[in-house]
Amino acid sequence: MVANVRDVLAGLFFVAVGVAVFLLSRGYGIGTPAHLGPGVFPMLLSGLLVALGIAIALVAVRDKVAAAVGLSWRPLLLVTAAVGVFGFGLDTLGLFASVALMVLVSRAARSGQSVMESLVMALVLGAAASFLFYYLLGLPVPLWPAFAA
Amino acid sequence: MLRHLIRACAVATLAVAVAAPAVAQSWPDKTVRLVVPYPPGGNVDGAARIIAAKLQDAFGKPFVVENKPGAGGMIAGETVARAAPDGYTLFVAANGPLLFSPIIFGRTPYVWSKDFETISSISFTPMVLQVYPSVPAKTVADFIALAKTSDPKLIMASPGAGTTNHLASELLQKLAGAKWTTVHYKGNAPATTDVLAGRVQFNFDQVSVALPYVKDGKTRALAVTSATRVPQLPDVPTFQEAGFADFEATTFTGLFAPAKTPAAVVNALADALAKILAEPEVVERFATMGSEARAMKPEAFHAYVAKLDARWTQVIKDANIKAE
Amino acid sequence: MSFLDNLALGFSVALSLQNLAYCLLGTVLGTAIGVLPGLGPVATISMLMPLTFGLDPTTALILLAGIYYGAQYGGSTTAILVNLPGETSSVVTAIDGYQMARQGRAREALVVAALGSFFAGTVGTLAIAGFAPALSELALGFGAPEYFSLMVLGLIAAVVLAHGSVLKAVAMVVLGLVLGLVGTDVNSGVLRFTFGISDLFDGLDFVAVAMGLFGIAEVISNLERKDEARAAVTLGGKGSFLLSREDFRAAWPAVVRGTGLGAILGILPGGGAILGSFASYMLEKRIARDPSRFGKGAIEGVAGPESANNAGAQTSFIPMLTLGLPSNAVMAMMIGALIIHNIQPGPQVMNANPSLFWGLIASMWIGNLLLVILNLPLVGVWVQMLRIPYRVLYPAILVLCAIGVYSVSNSTALVYVMAAFGVLGYVLAKLQCEPAPLLLGFVLGPLMEENLRRALTISGGDASVFFTQPVSLALLLLAAGLLVVMAMPRASRLRDAAFEEET
């Protein structure tokens, strides 16, 4: 039984990236010494990544220190979703609504938060962002949804 | 507050009377966006900012420059091509984004002749072939002769694959039947630095950039790429004078609108630009950038771009410049 | 004209009421906007550029220079307080600065950043005034072989940024190098790893990558801790206005060394300025009596890099002022501003417009002075912001990050890139892989590859250029020396902790 699962996973991660880089860069071309092709560097790096990944995993297999990895899915998914919602909504819903939605989604990333507080924050941050970025700095984005204008 | 301040500054200092032409509709009744396919700083951005301030005075509504860099200008081009053809989204474009990038990157998010209305040209920027002083060539003929015999080959510093500078070099190789080594840099500044240091022998540089080096004797100008001599370098011949009748390579900047933008709006903008680009102050500003301010009517400009399109597409294909 | 005459002319221009007022306006606006995450000097200047249209050229440049320093200083503040480096140089500041803030030493970190920057700014200004033409020769003397060797040295040194496992740090540098490959290959124009997405043709944007890896990942990590009480940062208890005696004693030699390194590297137009702040960090960690403090809130780790950064910010004006060649995006915009004001940029500016040239230089120093006067009292205000409960603060941080990253090129694509790197950063943090070496690999890698291939093309495929050019050879020997030192566990105090962990 391996104790240091964390570092084994880290090693495997680097091996996986290295293999992917190798596969993707096969078509880029090696060139000549005077004109190195765009494939040379990626090939070298992919080899290095695989070697380093294997080394990290081998060291970890013999490691006595226990270390596991547990991801907190709720903040991970909801914070990412909040940023995604903003990006998705900006051009269609406008600045105010995207900011407000982003705040609501991100507040859900942690349990037991007051819904009232979330709503107030959505409105306040939406208004503050609109004032600061739209009115003061003139960010080139729509302020309101396209269908409302 | 800041916006008001900005507007106040712009209006107060650039109060030049260009009467707003009568447009049938109410255009413009809100802010007009001028989308620039490059980051702030540089020629196209500079051109856009100069005309934005003037158009704002002419039409009495804000004209705002919006930088949307990326993918050789195609991100900006796609944005404008897809925008509503209502005259509130305009494209300040140049050769690269309009003509070269789609071929080089092998994508066609737009076809200039179908997806845009040509409004007017804004400026034309010639380049100069400059060599490091120790290069023995004094004329274009010497230079071509040297390039043909030199071993190792001469090296040209290019500010990037597919730039007008790079394509000018390819065109000259084709017309002269000579070959040299091309080294690409990330932008013009490092390319020019290596010419100044003598690590490479020559480049095609904008006249405004090269002018001080030529005057100080840090480089030697052999020829300019425009059809006529440039006022800043009156003693430097054109490539056409030097025997390359078909050689012309200048960067244009022009104003475009999404296809189907009302003719009244296109004409109003073209008329306003014709007046603006004839103002002595504007002419002088463009001259500082090493450019010639010149408006062309929509049809004439369309024909001009079409002619360039045919020529450069062939050069790019012959030189096999591709991103994939 | 002598040096003193020049400076006198400069100050007579810079101290006019109008220019002084605009210098102040620039530093205030720059700080105010630069403190917003993601809005670094480039975005700030491009937003405020229209402000300068109505001004005379000298005043306009003074305003822009003020915005530049202000934004840079504001960026460090964000890096220290909320772990959000908005530009390359503040990546290094964030490492120990944010740790200081978490230990309740945000005040000290901000004060040392302000004072160090002022000292560095003063030296940098003097360097420009006294030696600009001579120093521009240095910029011309660096060709592709020299840059390649400098980047090799930089990448080997990047491993020092981490305080955990060496192997993982090296792997992270290599991962950064891989990420730096995305986009159009400079040497050939070929697209790599873009998957046909046109938003990736110009590569991954640094701001989006850095804010994802640091800022977003940090928010996710903080949210998984259950205790609301102090998820992010604790407040400082000590009320001293400036620095304690020990802090001062620890910081000042780092400031001096950082200033020297930053000033020299800042002159190199091809990415030298990037190296300044982290060369300084490396040096401080290398010579410290107890290197294990680094990464855990060492004040030298803020003092040195911040000074290096500001010294480099000053000397990076040299190639622009003497050769007319912009060494970074900010300089390109300054040149754009000159053109809009009808001034032909280039080496002749110094002789053709002496009042503009020397006025700008004098106002650089005044701007730095104003920045210190302005920011020392503000430190208290910033630190108070940390009193805001985290449940209220984090949505605001996310909003600011998202808008800031959008403003880089007015594109939502960057917002998605930031989100993706937030996930990657969180996962890597879980695997105890530190993001700083990755970011340096990301920044330096493309420069290294580009210059390697360029050097070989220019030499006709002859790799001996790297050893026959004296500067290149010296840099490579230095890199080899560093490698040897790091590879010998017992001889190196630097990597002790790491090797203990592994054996």
Automatic annotation (TrEMBL), chain A:
It comes from Xanthobacter tagetidis. The chain crosses the membrane at residues 12-29, 41-61, 81-106, 118-137. Keywords: Membrane, Transmembrane, Transmembrane helix. This is Tripartite tricarboxylate transporter TctB family protein. The lineage of its organism: Bacteria, Pseudomonadati, Pseudomonadota, Alphaproteobacteria, Hyphomicrobiales. It comes from the Bacteria. Residues 9-142 form the DUF1468 domain. Pfam families: TctB.
UniProtKB/TrEMBL annotation, chain B:
Keywords: Signal. It holds the Pfam family TctC. The keyword Repressor does not apply. Residues 1-24 form the signal peptide. The keyword Protein transport does not apply. InterPro entries: BUG, Bug_dom1. Belongs to the UPF0065 (bug) family. This is Tripartite tricarboxylate transporter substrate binding protein. It comes from Xanthobacter tagetidis.
From TrEMBL, chain C:
The keyword Transferase does not apply. PANTHER family: TRICARBOXYLIC TRANSPORT PROTEIN. Signal peptide: none annotated. It comes from the Bacteria. It holds the Pfam family TctA. Residues 20-440 form the DUF112 domain. InterPro entries: DUF112_TM (IPR002823). Keywords: Membrane, Transmembrane, Transmembrane helix. This is Tripartite tricarboxylate transporter permease. The chain crosses the membrane at residues 47-71, 109-135, 147-179, 261-283, 323-343, 355-376, 388-407, 464-485.
